[in-house]
From TrEMBL:
Keyword match Manganese: no
Membrane topology label: Multi-pass membrane protein
Keywords for this protein: Golgi apparatus, Membrane, Signal, Transmembrane, Transmembrane helix
InterPro entries (UniProt xref): EMP70 (IPR004240)
GO cellular component: Golgi apparatus; membrane
TM ranges: 263-285, 331-354, 360-381, 402-421, 433-456
Keyword Magnesium part of the UniProt annotation: no
Pfam families for the chain: EMP70 (PF02990)
Provenance organism: Ambispora leptoticha
Residues of the signal peptide: 1-22
Name of the protein in its database record: Transmembrane 9 superfamily member
Cell location: Golgi apparatus; Membrane
């Protein structure tokens, strides 16, 4: 019998090893190129720090069309992030430099020119991808000794000539600089370790390469309320580097060049936290001291002492089922579900599994963790429900799996309608909604029922004190102790403690989930982070 068990374990290990050897996460395994190999360039989206609406680059009417049928398969996290990765018509081969090549020529209508002008005025940036590396703008750090990358490059340029008169120029020439290192065990193989894009706006003849860099003073290509002829060109420059290896090629994107420490926000949060803690401690000490002094009075006869004085007045009502007790258990379960999702996501992030090279991995992993954490939600919700003498544990489990996710799903669906009306790539497709609903009802709901079943079978948690049969009369409360006011105050105080910049709190988690672009910039973020 033991022999059969060991054989089964060995068979399972061998099968798991076989699966593990075939498991591949894009970006975690290097791609080797040799001279003349085709290097595909993918276009993704345009984004801006001034707006939360990205747009698919391939859908823009004033750029070169993409290859038909060249859409790359996207995971769930990429779709939810607004990625729309498509194969471009760039002809790039490994180790082959190009001085100037024509990509396409376009005749822009007035409407297309005005759309380009609008996007440029909103400081939109373009994201392209080579070997899973986003095209970046290279610049020096503040000390001037190190190179750093900012993800994306400008769609165009703005130039203020006079007051309220701003000219916009469309970037139509792209100098692509691809950094590589030679592979150690393959003399003919190279690994791409950097992808830099230097865009320029150059006015030139239609269908011809501009005289650049021989004539760097070429006039710029202005877009305004008129038809525009645009010729898109590009150059390719392969450069070997020994400063960057494939293993650390993401370091240039992750380096934070903002050395400023926001001491004011930190001190402000500490003072508020200490003040609130001291206030609660003083109230508790005064209450306990008053009761203890009352109990220790020597002239007070034992028979005259009342066990229900001071804070003991409510001991018989503390564990009374609340008015909306049917919602307490599902909300408790949902809180546990979010807690487990956050803990496991942060653990895997710290282990390096969810790194920026795994595009969309953070969002996908967090979403599936939330679905599978429903078993904990059902378990703890059922245990709390049993404390209140509930018997319909299946109904409670269904409410637990539907209440909070349903509210979030409804809000996202309504917001998605507005985003969809703007034709943004961050609008969730209806097919993705179907996938989310399937995960919800075919994974989360059954797991919640399983957890509730085991939670309800556990022994009921007994109260440390007996609950009075007659509820104690609650006196009329003054206006600032009304539930609505207390909810606002209770939610406002923690918000005051979170006025520190996001780069101070949860830097890595926010970086990975937002897809590296927000924190790659050298400018400090000015918004405050409220944890909820």
């Amino acid at each position: 019998m033991a022999y059969k068990s060991n054989a089964l374990i060995l068979l399972f290990v061998l099968c798991f090893t076989k699966l593990a050897s075939g498991f591949y996460i894009p970006g975690l395994s290097p791609t080797t190129y040799e001279f003349g190999d085709v290097v595909p360039l993918y276009v993704n989206k345009i984004f801006s720090d001034k707006t939360q609406l990205p747009f698919a680059y391939g859908d823009l009417p004033f750029v070169c069309p993409v290859e038909k049928g060249g859409n790359r398969w996207l995971n769930l996290g990429e779709v939810l992030r607004g990625d729309r990765i498509e194969l471009s018509k760039f002809k790039i081969k490994a180790l082959e430099n190009k001085t100037c090549s024509i990509l396409c020529a376009r005749d822009l209508t007035v409407g297309e020119s005005m759309e380009a002008k609008h996007l440029i005025s909103k400081d939109y940036k373009v994201e392209w991808i080579i070997d899973n590396l986003p095209g970046a703008t290279a610049y020096k750090t503040i000390d001037g000794n190190h190179k750093q990358y900012e993800v994306g490059f400008n769609l165009g340029e703005k130039e203020e000539k006079k007051k309220d008169v701003i000219k916009t120029y469309l970037n139509n020439h792209f100098a692509l600089r691809i950094l590589y290192e030679k592979k150690n065990n393959d003399p003919n193989g190279i690994l791409i370790v950097g992808f830099e894009v230097e865009p320029r706006s150059i006015f030139g003849l239609k269908g011809a390469c501009p005289d650049y860099p021989n004539n760097p003073e070429n006039p710029k290509l202005e877009v305004d309320a008129s038809t525009t002829q645009v010729t898109y060109t590009y150059s390719v420059d392969w450069q070997e580097t020994k400063d960057v290896t494939w293993g650390n090629r993401w370091d240039l994107y992750l380096t934070n060049s903002d050395p400023q420490i926001h001491w004011y926000s930190i001190i402000n949060s500490l003072i508020i936290a200490l003040f609130l803690s001291a206030m609660v401690a003083i109230i508790m000490l005064r209450t306990l001291n008053r009761d203890i002094a009352l109990y220790n009075e020597k002239d007070l006869k034992i028979e005259d002492q009342d066990d229900t004085t001071g804070w003991k007045l409510v001991h018989g009502d503390v564990f009374r089922p609340p008015k909306w007790g049917g919602l307490l258990s599902p909300l408790l379960g949902s809180g546990v579900q979010v807690l487990f999702m956050g803990i496991f996501t942060m653990v895997f992030s710290l282990l390096g599994v969810l790194n920026p090279s795994y595009r969309g991995g953070f969002v996908s992993f967090a979403l599936f963790l939330f679905a599978f954490s429903a078993v904990f939600a059902g378990y703890y919700s059922s245990r709390m429900y049993k404390v209140f003498k509930g018997t319909a544990w299946k109904k409670n489990a269904i409410v637990t799996s539907i209440l909070f996710p349903g509210f979030i799903f409804g809000v996202i669906f309504i917001l998605n309608l507005f985003i969809w009306s703007q034709h943004s790539s961050s609008a969730i497709p209806f097919g993705t909604f179907f996938v989310l609903i399937s995960i919800w009802f075919f994974i989360s709901l059954p797991l919640s029922l399983i957890g509730a079943y085991f939670g309800y079978k556990k022994t009921t948690i007994e109260h440390p004190v007996r609950t009075n049969q007659i509820p104690r009369q609650i006196p009329e409360q003054i206006w600032y102790l009304q539930p609505g006011i207390r909810i606002i105050i209770g939610g406002g105080d923690p918000s005051l403690l979170e006025e520190v910049q996001p780069s101070t709190y949860f830097y890595t988690a926010f970086f990975i989930s937002s897809g590296y672009r927000s924190l790659a910039s050298s400018r400090p973020l000015s918004t405050s982070c409220t944890v909820f």
